[in-house]
Specification:
- The structure holds two protein chains of two kinds.
- In chain A, strands 2, 4, 5, 6, 9, 10 and 11 form a seven-stranded mixed beta sheet that branches.
- Chain A is mainly beta.
- In chain A, strand 7 and strand 8 form a beta hairpin.
- Chain A starts with a strand and ends with a strand.
- Chain A is built from no helices and eleven strands.
- By secondary structure, chain B is an all-beta fold.
- Chain B is built from no helices and twelve strands.
- Chain B is globular.
- Chain B starts with a strand and ends with a strand.
- The relative contact order of chain B is 0.33.
- Classes of the chains: A mainly beta, B mainly beta.
- The interface between A and B is medium-sized, with 27 and 24 residues.
C-alpha cells in the first residue's frame, strides 16, 4: 500500500485555462475527500465521495469546479476557466468507514496550483 | 455547526522545552477531535485523535492531547521539543461516523536550538 497519491504535484496554468487533478486513494478505502488549502489557512472541505456517489459538496465549490469518481476508485477534480483566486494546494484524502464510526483520513501530498 | 479555533498562529520554543498548542472547538454534537501535522509542501499526517473513552490521548512522536468537555478544549502538548517538531499543526473536528474534517487555521511551531 503506497498511500494516497496525487498527480501532478505542481501545476502552473494561465488564467482562463482548464486544469484537472487526479487522486488515487488507498485501495480498500471507500471514502474520498477533496480539500483546498490556501496560504496560511487550514484545509477547507470541498467535496466527498462514498464509493462512486458524490454525497456532499461545499458552497466553496463553484460551478467551475467538478469532481468525479467514476468507478469508486480514483477521482478527478477539474477546474474550468481558472482564476487567480483558485491558486491553492488541493488535497485529497481517503478513509474506510466502519460500523463504529472510528475512521481515519489519510492525506495525499497535494497538488499545488498556481494561476498566473 | 462545528468550528475550531487555534489560539496563536505562531509558537516558538527552545529545544527541550514544553510544547503547548491550543485548540478550542464548538460542536452541537459529541465531537471527534484530531491533531494533524504538516511539513512544508507535504500533506497532513495524523498525530492523534479522540473519539470516545479515555480523555487523555497519546499520539506519535511523543505528543498527547486531553479532551476537556467543560472547557471545549483539545490542547496538544509534548514535554520536550525536538528540532524535528518544527512544522504546521492543525486541530480538526468531525461528527460521528463522518470524517469530513473542519480544520482550524493552524499553528506554526518553531523550535530553536
Amino acid at each position: 500500500d503506497t498511500g494516497v497519491s496525487q498527480d501532478p504535484r505542481h501545476k502552473i496554468t494561465k488564467r482562463g485555462q482548464n486544469v484537472t487533478f487526479r487522486c488515487d486513494p488507498i485501495s480498500e478505502h471507500n471514502r474520498l475527500y477533496w480539500y483546498r488549502q490556501t496560504l496560511g489557512q487550514g484545509p477547507e472541505f470541498l467535496t466527498y465521495f462514498q464509493n462512486e456517489a458524490q454525497l456532499e459538496k461545499s458552497r466553496l465549490l463553484s460551478d467551475r469546479f467538478s469532481a468525479e469518481r467514476p468507478k469508486g476508485s480514483f477521482s478527478t477534480l477539474e477546474i474550468q476557466r481558472t482564476e487567480q483566486g483558485d491558486s491553492a494546494m488541493y488535497l485529497c484524502a481517503s478513509s474506510s468507514a466502519d460500523t463504529t464510526g472510528d475512521t481515519e483520513a489519510f492525506f495525499g501530498q497535494g497538488t499545488r496550483l498556481t494561476v498566473v | 455547526a462545528q468550528s475550531v479555533t487555534q489560539l496563536g498562529s505562531h509558537v516558538s520554543v527552545s529545544e527541550g522545552a514544553l510544547v503547548l498548542l491550543r485548540c478550542n472547538y464548538s460542536s452541537s454534537v459529541p465531537p471527534y477531535l484530531f491533531w494533524y501535522v504538516q511539513y512544508p509542501n507535504q500533506g497532513l499526517q495524523l498525530l492523534l485523535k479522540y473519539t470516545t473513552g479515555a480523555t487523555l490521548v497519546k499520539g506519535i512522536n511523543g505528543f498527547e492531547a486531553e479532551f476537556k468537555k467543560s472547557e471545549t478544549s483539545f490542547h496538544l502538548t509534548k514535554p520536550s521539543a525536538h528540532m524535528s517538531d518544527a512544522a504546521e499543526y492543525f486541530c480538526a473536528v468531525s461528527q460521528y461516523n463522518t470524517d469530513k474534517l473542519i480544520f482550524g487555521t493552524g499553528t506554526r511551531l518553531q523550535v530553536f536550538p
